[in-house]
Amino acid sequence: MLGVSDVPRAAAFWMKALGYVPRKGMEGDWAVLVPTEEAGMQPALYDRARTYSAWLTTARPAWS
What we know:
The chain is an alpha+beta fold. It has helices spanning 7-18, 48-58; strands spanning 2-4, 20-22, 30-35, 44-47. A hairpin with an 8-residue loop joins β3 (30-35) and β4 (44-47).
């Protein structure tokens, strides 16, 4: 998983660099890229700012 600041822009870069396509379309803050022809790694891109702020509002201390 790769945290990025702009998912569509990062996805476009990695799709061109690796020759990958998005799996099941792309969400605004999440994308999984897959190879077009053979097996290979499937990098996941997520909006690190949005995920971090969601974690801050839902995380609970371990001692609670």
